[in-house]
Write a structure and sequence with these properties.
globular
């Protein structure tokens, strides 16, 4: 369905105590800044809250009350700092009322918890910061949480992953409202890529579980030293001195996944490290991570991370700072 948006697009940012200042400042920079790329008019931007709020170490004075959200074309809900705490009822009610009035409602990072509390994500695909996707899914089982994307656009309700992904979604909104050339001009002004490939899997860390009093505590470091070898579940079970079935049960209890999936994740993570820190060829990295061939590595890497190894390397390869170059 095509959404009709007035020439002057009003963007209202909902604020309350306990929000994250990074996402809040980012939204203000995008929608409250000067026009770019010949876009005229730009956005009419307002900060809405029930009273003065504390955002990290900053104090913020809203322009309007939360009731103003219902008069906006787009409502932005920045990150919610304490996801274990229920968001304020007046904020939840105001966001719900804005959506019912026809506003496009957008959450940045953990702001998705506010949208979920308002019932706006029920039956919908949504995302949030990868570290909190499980909590969002557990608390709101009617939400189809996708941990592997940078943002999700459901038309009138949009959600982003964490931190920098909030910028990806804001640029997506500008692209929808003003076109690609304006969004690209804004990205150049902000010195950020106008569009990033892949998803959150590029940024999720996959550490080995910490040593503990469990049957696999000695197995994990042994495996990590042998990622270049063609290990099988039987090899792991033999090393752990248990049957493959018992190994699978312990793996599920400790890591939440199967031995093969855990092993593949460690191989992919090692490949990421090598792509970031070395100039080794994809073929060499495939051998060093036990993938065998470059074709196998590319297939698993693209499916897991969302981009090919070469694209990942161009994005994340460590370089000397330009300020340090002669």
């Amino acid at each position: 369905m095509t959404r009709t948006i007035p020439d002057v697009r009003t963007v209202a940012m909902a604020v309350t105590d306990g929000m994250l200042h990074f996402e809040l400042s980012l939204a203000h920079e995008v929608f409250g800044g000067d026009p770019v790329g010949g876009a005229d008019p730009w956005y009419a931007f307002a900060v809405c809250g029930s009273a003065a709020v504390r955002v990290g170490r900053f104090r913020l004075e809203p322009d309007h009350g939360l009731d103003r959200l219902a008069h906006a074309d787009t409502v932005i809900v920045p990150g919610w700092a304490d996801v274990d705490e229920d968001p304020p009822a007046d904020l939840v009610d105001a966001v719900r009322a804005a959506h019912e009035a026809g506003a496009r409602v957008v959450s940045l990072c953990t702001g998705a918890f506010v949208l979920a509390a308002a019932g706006l994500l029920d039956g919908m695909r949504a995302t949030t910061h990868w570290a909190h996707t499980e909590a969002l899914a557990a608390r709101h089982p009617r939400v189809r949480v996708d941990p592997d994307v940078l943002y999700v656009d459901n038309g009138s309700v949009l959600t982003s992953a964490g931190k920098a992904a909030a910028m990806d979604l804001c640029l997506h909104l500008v692209r929808l409202d003003h076109g690609s050339s304006v969004a690209n001009a804004l990205a150049r002004r902000l010195v950020v890529p106008p569009h990033r490939d892949g998803g959150q899997a590029q940024f999720v860390t996959t550490p080995v579980p910490a040593p503990g009093n469990h049957p696999l505590s000695a197995l994990f470091p042994w495996v990590m030293e042998r990622l270049d070898q063609p290990l099988t579940v039987e090899d792991l079970a033999r090393r752990a001195r248990m049957s493959s079935r018992h190994l699978g049960r312990h793996f599920r209890a400790v890591t939440g996944t199967t031995p093969l999936q855990w092993l593949l994740t460690q191989r992919i993570r090692r490949a990421q490290e090598l792509l970031e820190t070395t100039g080794d060829s994809v073929e060499s990295i495939a051998a060093a991570t036990g993938m065998g061939t470059a074709t196998t590595l590319r297939r698993h890497f693209n499916r897991t991370v969302g981009v090919p190894p070469d694209t990942y390397r161009r994005t994340f390869r460590s370089r000397p700072s330009a300020a340090l170059l002669p």
